[in-house]
Amino acid sequence: MKKIRIVFYIVLSSIMSSIITIAAYKQYTKEEPFLFPYTNSLIKGKTKLTSSPYLVGSSGLPDFTRVVAKTIHTVVNVKNYSKKYYSNQFDPFDFFFGFPDDFENRGKKYPKNDSPGLHGSGVIISPDGYIVTNNHVIRDAEKIEITLSDQRTYRAKLIGTDSSTDIALLKINEKNLPFIYFSDSNKVQVGEWVLAIGNPFDLNSTVTAGIISAKNRNLGILRGETQSAIESFFQTDAAVNPGNSGGALLNTNGELIGINTAISSSSGNFIGYSFAAPSNLVAKVVQDIRKYGTVQRAFLGVKGMDLSKTEYLKDYNRETHQNIKPQTGFLIGEVFDKSGAADAGIKKGDIIKNIDGQTIQNIADLSFIVGTKHPGDKVKMNIIRNGHKKTFIVLLKDIQGRTKIRTREEILPSELLGASFETLSLEYKKDFGVDYGIRIKKIRIGRLSSIGMEEGDIILSINGEKMKKPNDVDRVLKKYSGDVTIKYIKQNGQVYIVGFEMN
Asked: Is 398 a catalytic residue?
């Protein structure tokens, strides 16, 4: 009988031990799931290195061979087949596509099946074929082709794009691919070593090294794409040239800290500085695109200027009779009605010094921090008002003033266009000699403003269909993706035809 009890207790102990182990494992996996994109250092703020730091060679110089061997196969060649015209106008992003062989023929239109390929780079961020690149690399693409480092070629599907950050997410049909882990770009320091991997001049798998020479650079290069541009680039001296755009910027642990996006050059070739979008912003964009089908952009609802801009600060002081000194921070010049900032009590003249524990030195800091948030998120803001410190909790909203996350299917096309419309009155029909059309009643940040349309313009047709009432816009564009063509009349009577891509 005693032996039976001993066996019973042993069995019971084993069962309880198994239950505890399973529960602990479930709790562990619940607390630390792999996020998309895959990340080591963004999981609950814990840093988990995936490799040892770089070695020091016999010469005493850094040896990056282990890092390169681990990551070089995660960077791909992206080829954009476009049926669009080549523009004769200067485009700063041209320097990253890699010039087509027949560069002398810019301005000519190529037949649909003979479009020259424009080259850029991309980074594999998951084993099942998700790839991140720059929006300008695949802009206006009729077909996107991916070539891996082992020369396997795939047709890529465009999952989504975001012109505000110049990021695009692609997908190829493959499994068990080498991929790169994301690192926390907030921890990147000026002076640390970095590697750039890409395909400059269509030379595959090229590696260069340098250091982070500055952070939070606002270059103004995305403002032509969208009025809601978010620019807070890393500046590096790693050599980057045409074709590197969309490629990887890595730390010495082989983790992604940025996507190479732009160079500072008068010749189109590298002359000292390159710029990369930080990985935390990239991660937020691709997560939103994959989960919701569109980027969930939060807005603070303020407009203003850097306090380092002494020439503008002098004008502001003169107009407002104040004596604000040059300093770090963001001076609010306008607070938008019904915005999160207005609801929280933020006022014109307040100086934003800190958001969620992160110092605000300039507009790049502000746009980056807000750009990583979603509608409905709350942020803690420390401001200076009339020389006194104050703290506010701000509930962020989207551009329409909503705090709810909405999928792409829930967002009406007219919202993406960024305008509200009204039926054309008899007076307008008579003045412009038309018997149909809708008038832009109000315009904000969106597709229409980005192509130069204004309040008061009259839209005659979209994709060849006549517009007679405001809801015709949503009827025609609902669930539509592809090229959109708009015929409209400016207020001076000139008729224009413009277009953009909707995806």
From this structure: no
